[in-house]
Design brief:
This protein is of the alpha/beta class. The chain is built from 18 helices and 22 strands. The protein has a domain at about 5-20 and about 75-390: Trimethylamine methyltransferase-like (TIM Barrel), CATH 3.20.20.480. About 45% of the residues lie in helices and about 15% in strands. Helix 3 (about 45-55) packs across helix 9. The protein is globular and about 80 Å long.
Length: about 475
C-alpha cells in the first residue's frame, strides 16, 4: 500500500513562466478590470450579495463593478488552505501554497468502449467504472466525476446519480459539477448523510462542487444561484473560468492569464460576499483557439503555460487553485496522446498548482474518456511525482565517505547504502517494459499491461464502499437513483 502522506501533496515551484514583476503587473490590472469594467451577473442572489458587500450594482444592465477594496477583502477572508477530505483519511488533499495533487475531470460526453475501442456516449455504468479505476490508481488522488450519464432521461435525476455512484465506488474525495439547484441540494443532503450530519460535513468535506464563471466576465443565473447556496452552506466550491485565446479572451497568453485571474477572483469575491470565510477555490481551465477552425484546443503546450502562470498568480494571492493539465486532442491512446499529456502534466505540476483536474483519462479536446489512458496517465503522474521530489543532497545521499572508503575500481551493488536507498530513490514503473527485446511479448508491453489492468478492474465484482445502512438509507431517500446497473 502506497504511503499517501509522502507520495502526494508534494511542494513544487520548479517552473515559473512569470517574473515577479509580471505577477505584480497582472495583479494590479486584474483589480482594475474588475473595478472599471466589472462583470455581468445574471443571478439575483449574487447581485444582492455583491451589493451588500459594497459593489456598484447597475441593476438594469445586470452589471456589477467590484471595488478593489472589496476584492482585496475577499482574498484576505478566503481560506488559504482547504482540505478536500477522503472518507478514510488516506488520500486527503491539502490545497495550499504550492502543494500538488492530481485527479480526473471534464464531464466528457463520450468514452472509448473498453470492449470495442469505439467511441460511444457515456452512461451511469461508466461513472461506476471510472470511480473504481480511480480507487485503484495510486497517483490519482481524488475523483472529479468525469462523464455524463446519457441513459438518464430525467434531467433532475442526473446529479444524485452521478454523486451516489461516485461515493459508492471510491473512498477518495468526490468533486463534481452540478446541473440543477434541486440536484445540488439533494447531493448536499446525501453527503451530509454519509458524513454524519451537516456540521460533520462542513468540518470534514468529503465532497466539493464546481460552478463556473463564463468568459468573458459573466456569472449566469443558475451557476450564480448554486454558488451562493454552496457558499452559504460553507462547503468547498470551485469558481473556475475557461477563457480561450482569440475568442473569449485576448489572443495573447498574458491576456488570457489576466482574464483567468480577474474572472476567478470575481468568483471568489462572490463566495466571500455570501459567507465570509467560506472555502472558495480559484479555477483555471482555459486554452487557445485553433484559428483554422475556431475550435478549442485541448493539448496545446500553451495551455500548460497559461495554467502554470495562473498557478503563480494563485500562490501570490494565497488562494487554493483548481487547475488543468494532461489533456490532449488525440482521438485514441496513441503517440500524440502520450506526448501532449506528459508535457502538459509535468509543466503544470512543476508550477505548484494545487489540484490539477482533467489530468487523467481525458482526450479529444476534453470530450472523451479513455480507460486505457487513465492507466497510462497514472504512470505519467508517478513520473511527475518523482520529478517534484527532486534530488535530496546531504551527507548520506552524497555518500562521499563511502566513495573514499571503497576507493577506485570497486562497485556498490552489495553495500548497505545501496540496499537502504534502492526502493525509494527511483520511480518504479508498472507499465514500462525495461526487458531485453528477446523477452518481449504483447502482454508485456505498456499497452498490453494497460489493457490487462482495465480488464482486471472490470472483472472484479463491484463492492460498495458505503456502509450498508447508509447505502440503504440513500437508496430509500432517493428512488430516482439507478441502482441496478449491468
Amino acid at each position: 500500500m502506497m504511503d499517501y502522506s509522502v507520495k502526494h501533496g508534494i511542494q513544487s515551484s520548479l517552473y515559473a513562466p512569470l517574473t515577479k514583476t509580471d505577477v505584480k503587473k497582472i495583479s494590479e490590472d486584474a483589480f482594475r478590470v474588475l473595478e472599471q469594467a466589472g462583470m455581468l451577473v445574471y443571478s439575483k442572489s449574487a447581485r444582492e450579495a455583491f451589493g451588500k458587500a459594497g459593489a456598484e450594482v447597475i441593476e438594469d444592465e445586470q452589471l456589477v463593478k467590484l471595488p478593489r477594496s472589496l476584492v482585496e477583502d475577499a482574498i484576505a477572508s478566503n481560506p488559504s488552505s482547504i482540505t478536500l477530505c477522503s472518507r478514510d483519511g488516506a488520500t486527503d488533499c491539502v490545497l495550499e501554497k504550492n502543494r500538488v495533487h492530481y485527479g480526473t475531470g471534464g464531464t466528457a460526453i463520450y468514452v472509448l468502449d473498453p470492449d470495442t475501442g469505439q467511441r460511444r456516449r457515456s452512461t451511469v455504468e461508466d461513472i461506476i467504472l471510472n470511480a473504481k479505476m480511480v480507487e485503484a490508481l495510486e497517483n490519482i488522488h481524488l475523483f472529479t466525476i468525469n462523464v455524463f450519464p446519457h441513459d438518464l432521461e430525467n434531467h433532475e435525476h442526473i446529479d444524485v446519480n452521478r454523486f451516489f455512484h461516485s461515493f459508492d465506488n471510491t473512498s477518495k474525495h468526490v468533486m463534481g459539477g452540478i446541473y440543477t439547484m434541486r440536484g445540488c441540494q439533494n447531493v448536499v443532503k446525501m453527503a451530509e448523510t454519509i458524513a454524519g450530519g451537516e456540521d460533520a460535513l462542513r468540518s470534514k468535506p468529503v465532497v466539493s462542487f464546481i460552478t463556473l464563471v463564463i468568459s468573458p466576465f459573466k456569472i449566469d443565473d443558475m451557476y450564480g444561484e448554486i454558488t451562493c447556496y454552496l457558499a452559504s452552506k460553507g462547503l468547498p466550491v470551485v469558481v473556475p473560468t475557461e477563457p480561450i485565446c482569440g475568442t473569449t479572451a485576448p489572443i495573447t497568453l498574458a491576456g488570457n492569464i489576466l482574464t483567468h485571474i480577474a474572472e476567478t477572483l470575481g468568483g471568489i469575491a462572490l463566495v466571500q460576499s455570501v459567507n465570509r470565510g467560506a472555502p472558495g477555490i480559484c479555477g483555471s481551465v482555459g486554452s487557445i483557439t485553433n484559428l483554422c477552425t475556431m475550435d478549442h484546443v485541448g493539448g496545446a503546450i500553451e495551455r500548460a503555460m497559461i495554467n502554470a502562470g495562473v498557478s503563480q498568480m494563485a500562490q501570490h494571492f494565497e488562494i487554493p487553485l483548481y487547475s488543468t493539465g494532461g489533456t490532449t486532442d488525440a482521438k485514441e491512446m496513441n503517440v500524440q496522446a502520450s506526448y501532449e499529456s506528459a508535457m502538459s502534466s509535468l509543466l503544470v505540476a512543476m508550477s505548484g498548482a494545487n489540484y490539477i483536474h482533467d489530468i487523467a483519462g481525458l482526450m479529444e479536446t476534453d470530450m472523451t474518456v479513455s480507460y486505457d489512458k487513465l492507466v497510462v496517465d497514472n504512470e505519467i503522474l508517478g513520473m511527475c511525482q518523482r520529478v517534484l521530489r527532486g534530488i535530496e543532497v546531504n551527507d548520506d545521499t552524497l555518500a562521499t565517505e563511502l566513495m573514499i572508503e571503497k576507493g577506485p575500481g570497486k562497485n556498490y551493488l552489495t553495500d548497505e547504502h545501496t540496499i537502504r536507498h534502492m526502493r525509494d530513490e527511483f520511480f518504479d514503473p508498472s507499465l514500462s517494459n525495461r526487458e531485453k527485446r528477446e523477452t518481449l511479448s504483447d502482454e508485456a508491453t505498456a499497452l498490453g499491461k494497460t489493457k490487462a489492468f482495465v480488464r482486471n478492474i472490470r472483472a472484479n465484482e463491484t463492492q460498495s464502499l458505503l456502509p450498508l445502512h447508509v447505502r440503504s438509507q440513500l437508496l430509500e431517500s432517493y428512488p430516482e437513483i439507478k441502482a441496478e446497473v449491468k
